[in-house]
């Protein structure tokens, strides 16, 4: 594996994700304004249920195929069996969802007749759940095949067409929730032939009981981990609304949305890196050293991105938003650093993944979700949105720290503790500087001071990076 290839694929995945998110960012206010608060609330509720349903029918199969496809004990001829049997299982669970929907949908409309949507919305949501999981599964297969341009084609096709047609149906045709969900479902259905064409080299019509059992045994604990993640990502808003106010929820939600600018980088790196992780273990005896060096580069890249946004969070919000959102700056600063911890999971979890201890992963995520609930319970009543941001930061630290601990017990990696401590010190220095230096006015002399501090910290941290060592290891 060449470092340049990994960098190129990171750019492609990141570009596809950025374009998709940018389109969603543009169309979201238009659709929300047209539907109105009540209808948009129902839409959000339906989409929340589809997310949970998707977690259940996917059964952790995406994680399972990523684990086994490039494993050294997997014969090359079995790779198609892994992909195909995973797809068979996914389709089986999708059929069960359709059966359940046929029973549940009539009951819903028997009990309540005043809903601002009809059968079409729930039918569309059911189809959307299935197509979304098929697309997500196929995109993971495409990443395993190291075909980033195919990934970009599918991702952009679905996101651009869905967004354009959704605006047309909701704004110009006034079809509301029913039209929006039906059109998104139809776009998903239209994409299925294309994605199956792209992954056809790994599709065979042969059912293998042994591989099916292996995939399910590895994947089913991930259902519980994903449900915990689902709760993890939503519980802070619920608790803010209950213990503080809707206004504080809005302040926090804005900060969280802005922090996802940094998340784009993390997602792009993760999508490029994860197919290589197991393949490296199979092909390169020095894979442990590569993991450790990639970990250091990952921390540095995220530190630069998060630190830059955190240092200028006040000025950034002042330029983009009215004064009523000024108090989002401190939560944004804290959330930027929580995403650094979130990004490190790509390496800290790797020992658990290699040793196939997905049940342990589920327990750790539930523990972190419980910690997140507890921290929010104590911090939100006093500190509001800032308290929720602190809870998120500490919870991600607990999560990645727990992964790190068990990785070192199960599949020890030669981490350089001194370098990690130096990065932690750099991060703490940036966080404190960002909070102390918070300013909601554009003062150029103050901005220059923060730029100098940032360059000093980033420059000194760069000395910790093993450039030549990583390049030599990857080229082997």
Topology:
Blueprint: H1 3-35, H2 37-58, H3 61-68, H4 79-111, H5 119-144, H6 148-172, H7 176-198, H8 209-243, H9 246-283, H10 287-311, H11 313-320, H12 329-348, H13 350-354, H14 358-410, H15 417-436, H16 444-462, H17 467-475
Helix pairs in contact: 1-2, 1-6, 1-9, 2-4, 2-5, 2-8, 3-4, 3-5, 3-8, 4-5, 5-6, 5-7, 6-7, 8-9, 8-14, 9-10, 9-12, 9-14, 10-12, 10-15, 10-16, 10-17, 11-12, 12-14, 12-15, 15-16
What does this structure look like?
The chain has 476 residues and is mainly α. The chain folds into 2 domains: 1-207, no CATH class; 224-476, no CATH class. 84% of the residues lie in helices and 0% in strands. The protein contains 17 helices and no strands. Helix 3 packs parallel to helix 5 (119-144). The radius of gyration is 23 Å and the shape is globular. The protein starts with a helix and ends with a helix.
């Amino acid at each position: 594996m060449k470092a340049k290839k990994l960098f190129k694929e990171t750019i492609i995945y990141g570009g596809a994700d950025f374009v998709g998110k940018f389109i969603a960012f543009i169309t979201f206010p238009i659709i929300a304004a047209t539907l109105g608060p009540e209808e948009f609330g129902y839409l959000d509720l339906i989409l929340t249920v589809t997310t949970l349903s998707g977690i259940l029918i996917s059964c952790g199969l995406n994680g399972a195929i990523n684990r086994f496809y490039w494993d050294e004990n997997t014969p090359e001829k079995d790779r198609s069996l892994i992909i195909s049997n995973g797809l068979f299982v996914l389709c089986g669970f999708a059929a069960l969802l359709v059966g359940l929907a046929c029973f549940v949908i009539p009951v819903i409309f028997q009990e309540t007749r005043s809903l601002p949507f009809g059968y079409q919305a729930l039918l569309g949501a059911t189809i959307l759940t299935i197509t979304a999981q098929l697309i997500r599964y196929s995109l993971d297969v495409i990443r395993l095949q190291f075909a980033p341009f195919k990934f970009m084609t599918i991702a952009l096709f679905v996101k651009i067409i869905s967004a354009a047609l959704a605006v047309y149906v909701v704004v110009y045709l006034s079809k509301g929730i029913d039209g929006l969900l039906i059109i998104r479902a139809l776009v998903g259905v239209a994409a299925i032939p294309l994605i199956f064409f792209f992954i056809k080299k790994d599709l065979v019509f042969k059912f293998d009981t042994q591989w099916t059992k292996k995939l399910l045994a590895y994947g089913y604990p991930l259902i519980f981990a994903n449900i915990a993640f689902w709760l993890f990502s939503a519980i802070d808003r619920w608790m803010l609304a209950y213990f503080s106010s809707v206004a504080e929820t809005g302040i926090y939600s804005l900060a969280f949305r802005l922090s996802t600018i940094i998340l784009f980088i993390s997602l792009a790196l993760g999508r490029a890196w994860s197919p290589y992780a197991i393949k490296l273990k199979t092909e390169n005896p020095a894979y442990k050293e590569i993991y450790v060096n990639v970990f250091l580069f990952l921390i540095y890249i995220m530190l630069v991105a998060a630190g830059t946004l955190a240092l200028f969070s006040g000025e950034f919000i002042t330029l983009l938003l009215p004064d009523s959102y000024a108090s989002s700056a401190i939560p944004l600063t804290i959330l930027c650093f929580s995403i650094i911890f979130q990004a490190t999971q790509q390496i800290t979890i790797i020992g658990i993944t290699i040793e196939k201890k997905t049940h342990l992963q589920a327990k750790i995520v539930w523990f972190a979700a419980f910690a997140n609930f507890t921290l929010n319970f104590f911090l939100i009543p006093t500190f509001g949105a800032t308290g929720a941001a602190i809870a998120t930061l500490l919870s991600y630290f607990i999560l990645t720290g727990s992964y790190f601990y068990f990785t070192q017990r199960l599949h020890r990696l030669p981490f350089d503790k001194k370098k990690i401590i130096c990065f932690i010190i750099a991060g703490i220095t940036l966080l404190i500087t960002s909070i102390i230096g918070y300013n909601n006015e554009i003062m150029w002399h103050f901005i220059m001071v923060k730029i100098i501090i940032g360059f000093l910290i980033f420059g000194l941290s760069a000395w910790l990076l093993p450039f030549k060592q990583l390049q030599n290891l990857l080229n082997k």
